Each structure stands twice: as structure tokens, then as C-alpha cells.
């Protein structure tokens, strides 16, 4: 009986942990860039500045994110390359004074210095038996850097999803990590205070992962904001999905890419969303998370 009671209690605690909701602080939209659409796909910070990227060929820059009265605005900060059909930047991270970008079209990692020098970090996919050319639109979706250990974490979005742990200097893939629970995809990664964090848009979660054993230590949900019951922030539902993750000392930022679809009545009434600009909900970072 004691064993049964213990198992029931453990299950109840695990279920309660899974249902923990993040506390919303604010929701702001990114204003149009020179009248053009901006499809937010990645976010990172350095010192007190926040930088973002978009996944369209018409946005070939790292952009500086600024605050305005009704939300945010973006300004070109560093040009990545000339616009072209092979641009699909889905994630950004910062380490050692450089920015790291992932291009889903080419399954490549690019490093950009403060001076604007661009160089690729070769990833030895073939040695690990991987064929990125077959991934198509289900490829790299998130990147995080463990600067202390010299490791790059790359998230493959879906079909199947997994995380690659890569040696930065050699490009060797050390581990291929899969999660059996917590949704069906990865949409971004972030490394902060010795832990890896993963954004799961299919289950509206942010996971805290121990990089030593790649086990999930904690999970928080943002479902109450993005999709409470039958409501949606943007219409139709398949748009407005989470694409970008940033953790600061006291906050968690989640970037939503609405693919230029208009805000829903719910999003407009509850959060004051207007038009078809992407949104960034900011949440209070739970103590110990």
C-alpha cells in the first residue's frame, strides 16, 4: 500500500509540474520594418541589447530590437549576406563576442564577428550518418552555445526531432539526443547558467535540460497566453507559433511568428494586438528555473 501511495503521489507531483504556467508580464508586437513584413525566427542578447533575425530572404541582417510605445521596432545592425534564395535563418546565439546563426536551407552554422567577418563552422553530419539534404523544411530550428565547454547545440525541428551536441572546434557530433515526452518538435534553444533550455511549440512548453544527462529537470507552460481553451492569438491556428526563445536574469521571452496573418479577436481584445505584426510575450522567470 505504501508503495502504491508513493507512486500515486509521484505521479500527481509530476503532473502538477507539467502544468505549471509562466506568469505573463507583457505582450508587444514588432512594428513593420520600412513597411515590409518581418517574420521573427530567432532572438539573442548581449549585455543590455537584444538582437533578432527573420527567416525571409528580404531580411538579410541581424537586427537590433528596440522598445517603442506600442511594443518593439527593429533596425538593421549587421548585414549577413546579400539577399538570396538560400536564406532561411531560424536561430541566433551569442558567445565569445560573435553571433552564431543557423540557416535551415543549407543546414549550416555561420559565425559573425563584431567586424562583420563571416565564417562557417563545418558540421560533420556524414560521420554521424545524417543527411541534411533530406530534412527540407523540418531541419535546423534552434541553436545554443555552451561557451565554457566549447559545445554547440543544434535542434532539428521534427520528423524526427532531436538535438545534436557538436564540438565547436572540430564539428564532430558527440551526441544525438531524443526526447520521448514533451510535444513533438523543437523550435528554439537557449543555454543559460549551465543549463540547456528548449522551446516546444506543439505543447506550449519551455524545458530546462541538464546537459550532463540531457534529462528534463523542469517544465513551464505558456498555453494560457498562446492558446487558452479554443482561443488563438492569430488566425488561423497553424500560424502564430513560437519560434524564438530568450532567457534573461528575471524574464523569459518567447517570439511568435504569425507568418503575416492578422491577430484574432481574442488577441486583440485581451492583449491589444493589431494587424499582422509578430508578437513577443514576456514572462516572469520562475525562481530556480
Task: Give an account of the 3D structure.
- The structure is a single chain.
- By secondary structure, the protein is mostly beta strands.
- It has a single domain (22-284), classed as 6 Propeller (Neuraminidase).
- Helix content is 10%, strand content 44%.
- The chain has three helices and 20 strands.
- It has helices spanning 2-18, 223-226, 265-271, and strands at 23-30, 40-46, 49-54, 61-68, 71-79, 89-95, 98-103, 108-112, 118-121, 140-146, 151-156, 162-167, 173-177, 188-192, 195-200, 205-210, 215-221, 241-247, 251-257, 279-284.
- It has an eight-stranded mixed β-sheet, with no helix packed on it. Strands 6-7-8-9 form a four-stranded antiparallel β-sheet, with no helix packed on it. The protein has a four-stranded antiparallel β-sheet with strand order 10-11-12-13, with no helix packed on it.
- The protein is globular.
- The model is unreliable at 5-13 (pLDDT under 50).
SSE inventory with pairings:
Blueprint: H1 2-18, E1 23-30, E2 40-46, E3 49-54, E4 61-68, E5 71-79, E6 89-95, E7 98-103, E8 108-112, E9 118-121, E10 140-146, E11 151-156, E12 162-167, E13 173-177, E14 188-192, E15 195-200, E16 205-210, E17 215-221, H2 223-226, E18 241-247, E19 251-257, H3 265-271, E20 279-284
| Global structural class | mainly beta
Oligomer: single chain
Mean pLDDT: 90
Number of discrete helical segments: 3
User: Biggest sheet, in brief?
Assistant: 8 strands, mixed
How large is the share of residues in beta strands? 35-45%
Q: How helical, in percent, are the residues? A: under 10%
Mind telling me the CATH superfamily name? TolB, C-terminal domain
Q: Give the terminus-to-terminus CA distance.
A: 34 Å
The top-level CATH class is Mainly Beta
Identify the overall geometry.
globular
Amino acid at each position: 500500500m505504501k508503495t502504491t501511495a508513493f507512486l500515486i503521489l509521484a505521479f500527481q507531483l509530476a503532473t502538477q509540474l507539467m502544468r505549471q504556467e509562466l506568469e505573463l508580464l507583457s505582450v508587444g508586437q514588432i512594428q513593420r520594418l520600412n513597411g515590409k513584413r518581418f517574420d521573427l525566427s530567432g532572438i539573442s542578447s548581449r549585455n543590455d541589447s537584444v538582437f533578432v533575425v527573420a527567416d525571409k530572404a528580404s531580411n538579410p541582417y541581424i537586427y537590433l530590437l528596440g522598445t517603442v510605445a506600442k511594443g518593439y521596432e527593429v533596425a538593421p545592425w549587421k548585414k549577413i549576406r546579400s539577399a538570396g534564395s538560400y536564406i532561411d535563418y531560424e536561430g541566433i546565439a551569442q558567445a565569445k563576442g560573435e553571433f552564431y546563426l543557423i540557416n535551415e536551407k543549407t543546414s549550416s552554422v555561420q559565425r559573425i564577428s563584431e567586424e562583420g567577418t563571416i565564417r562557417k563552422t563545418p558540421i560533420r553530419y556524414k560521420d554521424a550518418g545524417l543527411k541534411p539534404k533530406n530534412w527540407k523544411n523540418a531541419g535546423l530550428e534552434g541553436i545554443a552555445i555552451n561557451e565554457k565547454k566549447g559545445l554547440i547545440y543544434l535542434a532539428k525541428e521534427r520528423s524526427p526531432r532531436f538535438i545534436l551536441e557538436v564540438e565547436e572546434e572540430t564539428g564532430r557530433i558527440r551526441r544525438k539526443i531524443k526526447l520521448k515526452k514533451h510535444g513533438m518538435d523543437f523550435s528554439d534553444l537557449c543555454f543559460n547558467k549551465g543549463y540547456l533550455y528548449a522551446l516546444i511549440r506543439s505543447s506550449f512548453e519551455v524545458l530546462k535540460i541538464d546537459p550532463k544527462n540531457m534529462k528534463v529537470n523542469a517544465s513551464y507552460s505558456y498555453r494560457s497566453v498562446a492558446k487558452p481553451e479554443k482561443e488563438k492569438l492569430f488566425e488561423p491556428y497553424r500560424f502564430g507559433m513560437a519560434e524564438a526563445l530568450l532567457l534573461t536574469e528575471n524574464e523569459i521571452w518567447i517570439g511568435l511568428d504569425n507568418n503575416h496573418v492578422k491577430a484574432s479577436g481574442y488577441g486583440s481584445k485581451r492583449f491589444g494586438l493589431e494587424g499582422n505584426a509578430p508578437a513577443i510575450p514576456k514572462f516572469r522567470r520562475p525562481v530556480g528555473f
